Amino acid sequence: MRLCSVYSFNVDQITLGEGSLMAARQPFTDTDTADEAVRTTCDDATTCKRFATSKGYWKDPYIQYFVRSVGERKAPEINRGYYARVQGVNHLLDAFIKKAECDCQIINLGAGLDTTFWRLKDENLMPRKFFEVDFPTIVARKIHNIKTKPPLSKPIIETHSTDSLLLDAHSLDSDRYCIIGADLRDISSLDEKLKKFQLNPELPTLLLSECVLVYMTPFQSSNLVNWAAETFHTAMFINYEQVNMSDRFGQVMIENLQRRQCTLAGVELCQSLDSQKERFLKAGWEHADALDMMTIYSMLRQDDVARIERLEFLDEKELLQQLLQHYSISWAAKDKLNLGLSQLAF
Questions:
Q1: Over the stretch 194-226, which tens digit does the pLDDT of each residue have?
Q2: pLDDT exceeds cutoff 90 at 27
Q3: Which of 202, 227, 238, 298 is the 20 to 30 A CA-CA neighbour of 163?
């Protein structure tokens, strides 16, 4: 099988970033600057995960194909924070897939260079189809990595039934994996693109966002959460992002990001666990829950937590606690098919 380009594919455009896209949108605006700052968080998260996996916090044999170098050392509290994030999200995601007996679809919103599709294939937890959505420039980079790295392209090809894949500069579509360049703030375009690539509103659907909604205004993220509630009758939404942001520690986090021209446009919905739950309930989700990451960290498998705590000495345990208390996982469910989604928890 070959990866078949529908349009000519300019590799230079991938590596150089968004030059051609920006040229079409004159003049350059504050929104462009803010979007570029958000795009850099994709690289931040991937390099942190790459370092943590190199230290043995968890296994991810695929992340090396997106970030070649392990990079500079990350603080132990950062590594433990990413460990809690990955384990917590995977716990809920895997539980949903098992409830649906893999007869479901996943939409990773703002997926970045995430490797979940490849992990699920290795663990025989493949959904009917796995969708990823992100900024077109990030999608172009990821498609380039997939095209040029056989360990990434082979699993996609193995799960595809015909001898060619639909591929252009900002989308790749196969039977079981699809990646789309789109702006999550433009709901009608997002909906159109997903349905073009066989999104099925009748299937149980898991939507995942990790530090994505917080970069959208409350109005924009509410539109997205509303769209999901209205489109799928049996679904779960998992959201990982900041919480308890009104205290001094939260304010320092906001100021540090602002210095990088990265504005948390939706921070008012991150004031508490209640505000995180309320955003879903207001949008028509039947059930919602939320926990801060310190609580989730204490509920993970304690033998594995003990193992990772032996990997590096942590001098400032209070700093880890503060950090984990300012991130959360919230999740919401609608369950017309009575799969028992409201029972999914830690």
A1: 999 999 999 999 999 999 999 999 999 999 999
A2: no
A3: 202
